[in-house]
Each structure stands twice: as structure tokens, then as C-alpha cells.
Amino acid sequence: MQRNFKFLLGLAIWGSFVLHARAQCPARPPSGTVVENPFDLVSQNGVLSADLDLGYSVDQFGYTHYCYKYQSPTGIVEAPTLRVHQGDQLLLKVKDTIPPNSSDSTGSMHMSAPAGKTCADGGTATLQSTNVHFHGMNISPTCHQDDVLTTLIQPGSPGFQYQIKIPESEPPGLYWYHPHVHGFVEFQVNGGAAGALIVEGMEKVRPEVTGLAERVFVIRQQYLAPWVPGPYQITLNFHLAVQPETPSAPIIEMKPGEKQFWRVANATLQEFIPLQVVVNGVAQPLELIALDGYPLAAPRTETSILIPPAGRAEFIVQAPPAGSSAQFIEQFYSTGPTGNPDFEEILANIEVSGSSGSAAPQAKPVTAQTSVSPESVQLATLKDATPTATRKLYFSEEFGGTNGPIQFYITVDGQKQRVFEPDEKPAITTKVGAVEDWTIENRALETHDFHIHQIHFMILEVDGKPVAHQDLRDTIQIPYWSGAGPYHSVKVRMDFRNPTIAGTFVFHCHILLHEDMGMMHKILVEP
Asked: Among 209, 406, 413, 481, which residue has the least CB neighbours within 10 Å?
């Protein structure tokens, strides 16, 4: 529903880029085939060292693919899963292999890094520039770690070395990595540049998963032309999902009665995904284990799990008896009068065959790991903490006649409404050790998706009422305003007590178009 000159600019950039595309990305899986786990890169002796190249290609239908390529012993694989333990070193060299002359001047914008502050190659951000955000990780927002404000990796350079110490207290769970060059995030994530990152050790916190076959599923979304409403695809580990009337859905294999541990990342541009496993038309109970990389205080049973854009959910699924009709589906979700509706999709058909008691192919059993700190999952200290400050923020949109929203804002109450600029001063300044309660309100006619880098926050209230489950999250949806009555809101407790996260980072809407168009601001956490 968002139509303005920036969409036309996006179309021009995309069209110019497509004309110069070269086949660099691996071929995507054929329709209706078995979904496999992504290729694993596993830390050894406390270190995970790997090289990733950002490439791209255009398929026969005109969709531009961006890809994280890894040279495995058997050939190039796309978007490997990075598996680390608490305390490990993650040494990731990222090289931008997109030719620097692959688009003309329409592919550059004013999104250069703040004056005098650059990391990696520096320069001006363009459609070909990249960097990496380690979404949900409680790590430092500094150069060579999780700095997205000044890090620019340019095409043609030797590449850039990320050197990240995984904190000893990092919660075991599912995280993910993706590009985060402001102004162009949607373009590269739209093309598929996103992968899973797992901190091992869930079975030490939630023993319910021990011995279960583990499945890693990354849901991606791709529009034919980024920023432009039109044809799009939903994929499951790059397998094309289908609408209910289309028979060639991807296939997930399970044994009768088998339990599996599913780890699902929503790496879409804007899709709010209510997930269900349906057997013979009936939604099945799912044992929810973790959200956004944080183990729950106790597992709970749900028949539908809503994952907003950039969110993650980890849950146990039990296969039905042989001969059952089973599907893994995304339900319909309304995002409001000016939002884009998210339609029902069959993400995969679940094929149940063979004898019970053995794991399906491509499913790795969860085995005992070490070095999980109990402190990483203790919620009581945050729940009982006295807030050092309270703040109110709100989402809003500016309209342009019948063309829908033309500008997107996130504003700290009492400040002037404005879009993000690279040289802006932080909208919020706080200190290490602070615990703050933020109320985030949605004054727009479409659902928004709040995300903050570097930390998790605790959900306290929804629409002014205490919640039953005070989960820790890094991303949360806030429903649209209907046009009458009070605005919807969430109240969250922000935890700035970890000195590792000191520095400047950002909070924003994780609908990537909105972020690219300025629905983002900086926060400074002083040591």
C-alpha cells in the first residue's frame, strides 16, 4: 500500500541492477522436493572461522537473488547455519563479490556513514555495499563486531573480518544474520541474504529437546521488485511455498509419532507469520521452548505461534500416525487498512512414513553440550528490578492523499517527529546498569514491528494489561490502530546492565521498507 517516489527510485535501482546481474548464487531447490537443513558450520575448539562471499544472480522469472556463499568440501552452499557455544570466538570474513560497476548512479544514495566515523572500507553506501548484523546477539556494537552504523564493505575490496566473542551469558537459542546497510536493507534481504545462527546448549536449559531430531527452517520472502507492491514468493529453506490450491508444496519428512525440535526464523521483509501444524484439518499442539533466542521460563503448549518479521520460535512437533494428511502452514494475518495482508500459505506438506522410533533424514539429534551458564536464563533479576527511567515511544505515518503512507516515523515522546539520518545525535542516551520501562505505541493504520539491537527486553503489558507470560524478546509486533479508540501499545523492560553492549546502536521497525525509509533512531549506552 506504500506508493511514492521512493518506490519508483527503488524500481529504477532494481531494474538497473538486474541488467548487470551475473550468475553467482547457487540454484534454488526445485518445487515439491524434500526440505533439508541448511549446511552447518560448527565451532571447533572454541572457534568458528569461516569465509562468506556476498553474491547475486537473476533467475529465469526475473527475481534477483542475493546470497551468502560458502565454499564447502562438496561445492558452494548458500546461507550456512553458524553454530557456536557460549564463550566461543566467531571469526567471519565477509567479502562483497558484486562487481563495483554493476549499476549506475541510481544505485547510490546519501546513506553514508557519519562523518569521520568509518569501519571496514567506508565510503558511500550503495546498492552494492554490505555489512552484517547479528540479530538478537547481546554483543558489542563496535567495529569488527555488530556495528551497522559505520561498517561498509564495498565490492572489489579484499573483504572484512568480523571478530566476535560470544558472551558466556549468551542465551542458547536461535539467532540470525543479515545485511544492515541503511537504505538498502530490503534489497539484499529480499534477495535471500540471511542465515541462521545458533548458540548451542538448549538441552541444558530445556531438557525436553534432548535426543530429538533438530530441524532448522528459515522463512524468506522475495518481491519481484523491492519497494514495489506486486508479485512475491515465500520460501522455506529456499523451497518455494505455495498457496492452498497449489499441490507442489515442499516436503518435510517425519516418522509416525516422532517428535522433532523445530527452530524457525522469520527472515521475511514484512510478513507476520502465525504458524500451525495441521493434521487432517485440525491444528496440533506445539510445545513452545524458546522465542527470539531466549528459552522460556517453562515450556507451554500453543496451537498457533505468531512470529513477527525477524522473530524466531523454537518448538517441539509430534508427527501424526502414518497415512495422516499433515501440513506446516502460515495462517492469514491482517496488518491493517494501510498494511499489506499476509495470506495463508502451505509452507510444506509433512510426509509421515516408515517405522516409528527413528529420526527422519536430514534431521540431526540434539545431543548434550557443555558450558551453559544458568545465569543466562534467570529472569527474576530483571522482573524484580526497579526501573531507572520510563519512556514512551510511538510509531506513526504521514500520508499523501490517495497514494497511502509516504513517510514512516518512530518517535520518542516529546521529541520532534523525524526520519533517521546517519549523522543524527542519539534519540536516547542511557548508561550501563540502567533498567528502563518503555511503552511503545502504534498510532498508524498498519501493524509495526519493534526491534532493538544488542539487548533483549521483557514483555510487561499489552494495551495496559499485564501479560500472562513475561517472555524476553528482541522483536515484538504492535497491532494497527483502527482509526477510533485508544492506540495499541506494549510495555517492555529494557535491560542495559550488560557492559558488553555499551556504545551506539539502533532501534527500528523491522518491516524493512519502513526501516530503510527512516523508521529508526540511535540509542547511546554510556559505559
From this structure: 413
